[in-house]
Amino acid sequence: MTSLRFAILGKSQLAAQRCQAIARHAGSQIARTWSTDQATAFDEAGWQAALDPQQVDAVILALPPRLAADASIRALKAGIHVLSELPGGLTVEDIINLRQAERESEAVLKFGCSLRYHESVRAAADLVHANPYGDLLTARAVYGHAGYPGADARENGILLGHGIHMLDLLHLFCGPFESVKAMQPDGPDSGANLFAILKAGSGTLAQLHASATSWRQTFRLELGYEDGYVWLDGHLPGLEQYGPEMLIHATLSRGPDGTPLPNPHETVSEFTRIHFADEELGEFVDAMAGHAPLRHGTSHQAFDAMNIAQRICAATETWA
Question: Is the pTM of this model over 0.90?
């Protein structure tokens, strides 16, 4: 069997983990790598050389959003499979253009929705899909970083540079959102904090705080149901500043007269390992081989996340 040849464009911590997964995968190899600076300097001939289907079968993109959409479209048009980190572009129009290129190509387009592969997230999804808690009433989400996590977040704001991953999780649990209200500070560093209130078609209300001034770095998603709650707290084992990755859930207790009782008994599970890159790569390779469709990181999911992110940004200008 011929190994799948991967090209890496750009650099990030997630891309490094994906490279390690490729090295562990018996049917894959890294054929070439390009830095962000090199990709920025590509002319037309440079892009054709970098994305040569005779040399490369798939590309992992860790490029700034301003470059990622163009690189993805070029790869898809060349028949090269694409795995691009979220958000994959700067606007909804970028994602629409990517989806069109995907439809016109025989190649696979996948986005790096890495949080969906975390064991705590998968355990929570399995738990709530069994529907022991009734309808989802509320969701409260905090994704707080101590300073901007990178140049992209500083340039484009913490929501697009970091918080969009939490928006993707909110879509996973809450479904599409219909209404948006949002507020952020005034001034030159207004993109450092953003609060949004969202309403899903099901009636679920969600609150998001994305922050670059969270000196106690925080990842928390609280899901409140009719008959209980499910919390995700901490993430990314190996990055201790976010705390341990835990899943906390409880079923509502009631008194003799049926009145809900506060503070029901909780079940707490802690997760110490993460294999997102291996699982993500396996799903990507299966899709490339036509063995199974993508489940996570589809262009539709990327569109949902970008669409609501752009609507949130627009809503901050019309808050009354």
Answer: yes
